[in-house]
Amino acid sequence: MGKIKRTFGFILNHPLGKRNPLKAFIRFLTWQLQSSMQPAKFIVKPYIAGINFYARKGLTGITGNIYTGLHEFDDMALLLHFLQPGDVFFDIGANVGSYTLLASGVCNAKTFAIEASANTAAITAKNISLNKLESKVTLINAAAGAEEGILTFSKNEDTTNHIISAGESQATDVETVNVISVDSISLTDKPALIKIDVEGFETEVLKGMTNTLKLPILKAIIIELNGSGLRYGFNEDDIHKALLSVGFKPYQYDPFKRELNLMDSFGSYNTIYCRDVEFIKTRIKVSKGFKIMGEAI
Predict the structure, then answer these.
(1) How far, CA to CA in Å, does 196 sit from each of 94, 156, 193, 226?
(2) Are 119 and 155 in contact (CB under 8 A)?
(3) Which of 89, 134, 153, 228 has a CB 3.0–4.6 Å from the CB of 200, allowing a cystine?
(4) Domain carrying residue 34
(5) What digits encode the pLDDT tens for the residues 23-55?
(6) Who's near 209: CB < 8 A, 6+ residues apart?
(7) In whole angstroms, how large is the CA radius of gyration of the chain?
(8) End of a domain among 39, 71, 103?
(9) Dihedrals φ, ψ of 90, to 5°?
(10) Closest to 253 in 3D by CA, of 240, 239, 243, 263
(11) Is residue 291 in a domain?
């Protein structure tokens, strides 16, 4: 019952859910019926602009899109309004590919999807294949970090899988994963937009992308800063200062008005850091937009 209440709260507080509550709850009830009848089976669901994805009971990294169209509405809408064909997008902590499908399937950008979990990456690969995006997406089954190496990663925690910290040394349901640096990718493919969602390991990811951060073509970073870094002893104020030092500032995006609003500091969940803001504003102003939940945005 608690889980259902949380889901209802998510829908009613979601920008699209609260504007279209009847549609959202019909989607929710339809999915509950389907997934209850076939809990272990992958079910193909429509996403946006002809793109589809595989969903299964318990895959919270993608099922939120079923209820509200775009799970992380502001951030996903910025991606959809900003990215253009020919751009490169880095999806760091890709999970099962929600952002990757939007970037390459809708915006026609080139994506590097980095996902540490072998099981999750296998689902990402299925979603890429389902939409025939193999030529646009490079899937890397590894963790991003400060330097190449090997680390231990949790298993079977869905969207909260993470690098095992020293304080979790007794964890047993784990796997070993290869670690790469973002700089090793951007040597040849230079991103215009990066999304980082690595459950507290963001500090190490940024240490491995010092050269990438200096690239003039990189205009925005969507990064999760929700306190998870404490498990590794990281202070997210340091991330904020590091991004400010290379010209990024935190913004909140209003997709309905297509407005970027400067914030005093980072938020409690995802934060959008931008630089060369006038360039970004020009792009989002002329974007053809998208349709979701019956709305043109």
Answers:
(1) 8, 20, 10, 12
(2) yes
(3) 228
(4) 1-71
(5) 999 999 999 999 999 998 999 999 999 999 999
(6) 144, 181, 182, 183, 186, 194
(7) 18
(8) 71
(9) -105, 120
(10) 263
(11) no
